[in-house]
Each structure stands twice: as C-alpha cells, then as structure tokens.
Specification:
The chain is α+β, with helices and mostly antiparallel strands. 48% of the residues lie in helices and 13% in strands. The chain contains 7 helices and 4 strands, in the order ααααααββαββ.
C-alpha cells in the first residue's frame, strides 16, 4: 500500500479532510518520491494546523511490521531465559535493527542507518516521521510481552543524529 495514503487513512476523518483540502489527495499509484514529498507536506501541514500525529504515525509504523517477524520474536522470547538473551536472539535473527540491548532497565534499540526509504527521498523530512519507527517497536514488543509498552524516541538520523535511538520501557 502507498505509505502516504496509509497515513491519511489512519487519521481521524475530520483532520484528514482538513489536511487533504489544504494539500490535495495522493494518487494511489504515486511514486516513492511523490509519496515522500506528500508525507513531508502532510506532516508540515498538520504541524501548522496543530493536528497531533504521533498516534497516527505510530499506528502506521505498526503496519510495517510483518506477522512473521512477530511469530519469530514470540518463539525467541518463549525460549529465552531473560530479556538480555531474548534481545541477543532478536539481533541474531535480524529483527529490530541488530542492535538491541538493555541499559538501566530499558530496552535500547539503535539503528546505524535509516531503514525507511521515504525520508531518504526528500531534504528536511519532518521529524514526526520517525514516530513510525517508534510504532514499529511498540507493536513488536507489545505483542511479544502481551502488554502495552512505552517507546521514547531519543534521537534519529532524520533529526540530524548519526544514529536512531529508541527506548522501550514498561515491558516488565
């Protein structure tokens, strides 16, 4: 599915109408470049209209996580003796960026590169876009631990950092 359309579809209908009235509707068959430009314009417009997009972007990020990755993660968790071992198994299975570890009771997820093609296609991508990755982690760990977890964005490449860092807490 077109990522830009997915974002609009996950917005509350009143806000989606307001934004689409302002910037138009994305074509279902839009190229990745057009989607990236549209998403950036959408996020900038929602920001100026004071429309809260964190939940929408996180929901979209959860959609990018495959059910197969969740199944594998659940199996790895079931055979782990503790969280550190589970994270090592996830790293070996290449689920979650290959750099998951525990620090001060929180799961720390680090990306050394941006895995999403959308922000790479435009300059100055709106920083809210990275809520998508936070949503990916939220869905992964919430499903594995069978409870809602908290994900905090520490920093991202889109924000100008050398790596993306997320903290996952409230998983115990």
């Amino acid at each position: 599915m077109n990522k830009a359309k997915r974002i609009v579809d996950n917005m509350d209908s009143e806000n989606a109408f307001a934004v689409c009235s302002e910037i138009g509707i994305i074509d279902e068959n839009a190229t990745p470049l057009k989607q990236a430009r549209y998403i950036n314009e959408l996020l900038n417009t929602t920001e100026s209209m004071k429309i809260y997009m964190t939940d929408t972007m996180r929901k979209c990020g959860g959609c990018c996580l495959s059910t197969n990755a969740i199944k594998i993660a659940k199996k790895l968790y079931a055979k782990s003796n503790d969280i550190a071992e589970f994270l090592n198994l996830l790293n070996e299975a290449d689920i979650g960026g290959r750099n998951l570890h525990i620090f001060e009771g929180k799961i720390i997820a680090v990306y050394k590169k941006c895995y999403c093609n959308i922000p790479k296609k435009v300059e100055n991508m709106n920083k809210k876009y990275c809520e998508c990755s936070a949503g990916w982690y939220m869905r992964l760990f919430s499903e594995v631990f069978e409870k809602s977890v908290t994900v905090t964005i520490v920093d991202t490449i889109v924000n100008g950092a050398s790596e993306c860092v997320f903290e996952i807490s409230d998983y115990v």
